[in-house]
Amino acid sequence: xxxxxxxxxxxxxxxxxxxxxxxxxxxxxxxxxxxxxxxxxxxxxxxxxxxxxxxxxxxxxxxxxxxxxxxxxxxxxxxxxxxxxxxxxxxxxxxxxxxxxxxxxxxxxxxxxxxxxxxxxxxxxx
Length: 126
Prior knowledge:
Blueprint: H1 2-42, H2 49-71, H3 74-87, H4 89-109
């Protein structure tokens, strides 16, 4: 009984993670397209040509990563992450810290109620 419940919980978690993986891939793809469009608009300006090349390169990388997220299954991605952590632990740790920082910033920005002052304090008469 307990094993079945645990297996159900694992499958449900895997389903949610796969859903989030596809959502992240879609969001990254959209961001890459927007970045590419901005890069194309900057290419006409000689002063911004360097920035346009950097933005284009970043967009290419984001699209590749988006495709990887879209096409790979969770187990394969975990194996890749484990392999990277073994080969280059400093890079892996830095990437994990950066990802954690970005996740916190994203969560804070997507929850406007967390920064709004509370106005539902109970009134007390003195």
